[in-house]
């Protein structure tokens, strides 16, 4: 493949060279476009080589991406290494690692073992989401141990990011290292994974084992390849084969995955009372089991690594999708899977696929002519609101619009190109729309602006904010009516609200043209 120059050490080949018809991959890309599926990347590994790597601009091979619960399958590797090193056993009791805990203890908590954390059968009645915990400032470990355990461990599956955090905390305790460092030495560096990987930490100084890992799409693909190959990489056994078999095998059958409420995953007992069961699957040690003997690492909003052992293949993709959306999965299982290694078309079809991959871009990621001369510029004082916004300002700088928002934490800017996209870093608050994520150092954003004329409402400034290391894409609109501005903001995907309440502001300072242009 020639459209990417990211040196990762992965062998590359054309689909035809591996007896896969490129027309099937093209048909898959057609369906993704026709069904309006927001993918950011799609990688296909088959029989020892990367035969397709697709990126929708502005997403690229070099950019890390927030992987959400795919993180859990990385955490599973850390547990496997600790077991292999003789530091712990899956039959160890959870409480034995926290002798200083002085909170309530019942028989079910005493009986909880590491294998119950690994298989999401801890005994909890409902699971804790990463978004919920990110709002908690006290000890996450203590919060987990204090939760009621109405079920006997091992009896009931309740999806729980907190269980994965506890695994991270336990491995850190026995190894003396955060699992990001532990895995870096033993897995990431030997596999030449990207140097841009990052991993959030919780309040206890522990890597968030259930989420919070950002890495490239190829890093995620390599996770799947390592497990496809039984833990072996370029002749080295990095992860014990026995652990891989246990982790990716079926430890819990006919899992009933309950409803995600935005803060919690309801347990089966709660779902049974009039709730909706989303699907039934199998589960291993922080890996999901799927159809056709597949297994996968699954992340919220469309981050997936699907391993197809029967085809010696791995398919990884990132995106901005609703969690219940399984259309990409159907394309992989029903359209792509049967074609892998089943016979190829004439080799010129490879060139057709290559040309298609070069031109991929997100929907509406296009330049729209915009003359900022008529743009209202100034500062507006915002009426009291539950978002804590005090003022907003608009300035015009050459070919860009600068939107500034002030709140209790200071001022935050987004620089949007006038009719084109600009990339900057912003601290703009957005946790309510972004699954409670608000990184301290800011986020990379690719932004553009354009003016819209709405007859009954007056001029509208619309900005497109693409947070290119995440699943999130915000649409921000400012509607002007005399000295009043109405501000609205929405997002493509979220675990709770998709739009913030509209804010109203009154003009306090109007910039002169000279000040606008500096």
Describe, in plain words, how this protein is organized in 3D.
By secondary structure, this protein is α+β, with helices and mostly antiparallel strands. The protein contains 14 helices and 25 strands. It has a nine-stranded mixed barrel with strand order 16-17-18-19-21-22-23-24-25. An eight-stranded antiparallel β-sheet has the order 2-1-15-14-13-12-11-9, covered by helices on one side. Strands 3-6-5 form a three-stranded antiparallel β-sheet. A hairpin with an 8-residue loop joins β16 (378-382) and β17.
From the alpha carbons, calculate the radius of gyration and give it in angstroms: 24 Å
- Structural class comes to alpha+beta
Number of helices: 14
Morphology:
globular
Strand content: 25-35%
First CA to last CA: what distance? 46 Å
Strand order of the largest sheet: 16-17-18-19-21-22-23-24-25
Oligomer: single chain
Largest sheet: 9 strands, mixed, barrel
- What percent of residues adopt helix (DSSP H or I)? 10-25%
Number of strands: 25
The average pLDDT is: 91
- Uncertain stretches of 5 or more adjacent residues: 1-7, 270-277, 513-518
What's this model, at a glance?
The protein has 518 residues and is an alpha+beta fold.
Write the layout of secondary structure elements.
Blueprint: H1 22-34, E1 39-46, E2 49-55, E3 65-66, H2 71-84, H3 107-111, H4 114-118, E4 126-128, H5 130-133, H6 140-146, H7 161-175, H8 179-188, E5 198-199, E6 213-215, H9 217-228, E7 232-233, E8 236-237, H10 241-248, E9 252-257, E10 264-266, H11 268-271, E11 279-283, E12 288-289, E13 295-299, E14 303-308, E15 313-319, H12 327-339, H13 348-358, E16 378-382, E17 391-397, E18 400-407, E19 410-418, E20 422-426, E21 443-454, E22 458-466, E23 473-481, E24 484-491, E25 503-510, H14 513-517
Parallel strand pairs: 19-21
Antiparallel strand pairs: 1-2, 1-15, 3-6, 4-10, 5-6, 7-8, 9-11, 11-12, 12-13, 13-14, 14-15, 16-17, 16-25, 17-18, 18-19, 20-21, 21-22, 22-23, 23-24, 24-25
Helix pairs in contact: 1-12, 1-13, 2-7, 2-8
């Amino acid at each position: 493949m020639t459209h990417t120059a990211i040196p990762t050490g992965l062998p590359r080949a054309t689909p035809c060279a591996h007896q896969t018809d490129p027309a099937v991959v093209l048909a898959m890309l057609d369906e993704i476009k026709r069904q309006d599926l927001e993918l950011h990347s799609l990688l296909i590994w088959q029989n020892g080589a990367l035969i397709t790597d697709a990126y929708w601009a502005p997403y690229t091979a070099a950019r890390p991406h927030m992987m959400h619960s795919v993180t859990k399958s990385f955490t599973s590797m850390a547990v496997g290494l600790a077991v292999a090193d003789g530091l712990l056993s899956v039959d160890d009791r959870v409480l034995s690692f926290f002798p200083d805990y002085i909170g309530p203890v019942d028989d079910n908590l005493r009986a909880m073992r590491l294998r119950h954390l690994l298989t999401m059968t801890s005994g909890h009645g409902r699971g804790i989401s990463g978004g919920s915990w990110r709002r908690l400032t006290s000890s996450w470990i203590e919060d987990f141990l204090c939760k009621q355990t109405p079920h006997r461990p091992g009896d009931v599956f309740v999806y729980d990011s907190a269980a994965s955090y506890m695994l991270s905390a336990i491995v850190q305790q026995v190894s003396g290292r955060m699992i990001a460092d532990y895995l870096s030495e033993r897995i990431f560096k030997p596999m030449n994974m990207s140097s841009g990987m990052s991993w959030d930490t919780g309040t206890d100084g522990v890597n968030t084992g259930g989420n919070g890992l950002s890495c490239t799409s190829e890093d995620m693909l390599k996770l799947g390849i390592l497990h496809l190959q039984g833990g072996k990489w370029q002749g080295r056994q990095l992860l014990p084969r026995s652990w891989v078999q246990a982790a990716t095998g079926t430890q819990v059958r006919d899992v009933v995955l309950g409803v995600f409420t935005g803060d919690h995953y309801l347990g089966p007992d709660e779902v049974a009372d009039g709730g909706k069961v989303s699907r039934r699957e199998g589960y291993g040690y922080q890996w999901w089991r799927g159809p056709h003997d597949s297994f996968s690492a699954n992340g919220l909003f469309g981050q997936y690594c699907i391993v197809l052992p029967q085809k010696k293949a791995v398919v990884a993709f990132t995106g901005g999708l609703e969690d219940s959306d399984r259309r990409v999965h159907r394309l992989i299982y029903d359209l792509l899977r049967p074609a892998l290694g089943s016979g190829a078309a004439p080799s010129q079809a490879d060139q057709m696929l290559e040309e298609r991959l070069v031109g991929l871009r997100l929907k509406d990621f296009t330049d729209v002519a915009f003359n900022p001369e008529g743009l209202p510029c100034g500062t507006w004082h915002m009426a009291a609101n539950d978002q804590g916004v005090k003022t907003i300002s608009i300035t015009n700088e050459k070919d860009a619009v600068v939107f500034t928002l002030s709140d209790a934490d200071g001022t935050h800017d987004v620089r949007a190109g006038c009719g084109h996209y600009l990339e900057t870093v912003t601290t703009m608050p957005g946790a309510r729309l972004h699954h409670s994520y608000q990184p301290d150092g800011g986020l990379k954003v690719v932004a553009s602006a354009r003016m819209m004329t709405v007859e009954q409402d007056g001029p509208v400034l619309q900005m497109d904010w693409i947070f290119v290391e995440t699943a999130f894409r915000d649409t921000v609109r400012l509607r002007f009516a005399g000295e009043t501005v109405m501000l609205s903001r929405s997002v493509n995907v979220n675990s709770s609200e998709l739009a913030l309440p509209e804010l109203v502001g009154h003009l306090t300072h109007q910039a002169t043209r000279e000040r606008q242009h500096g």
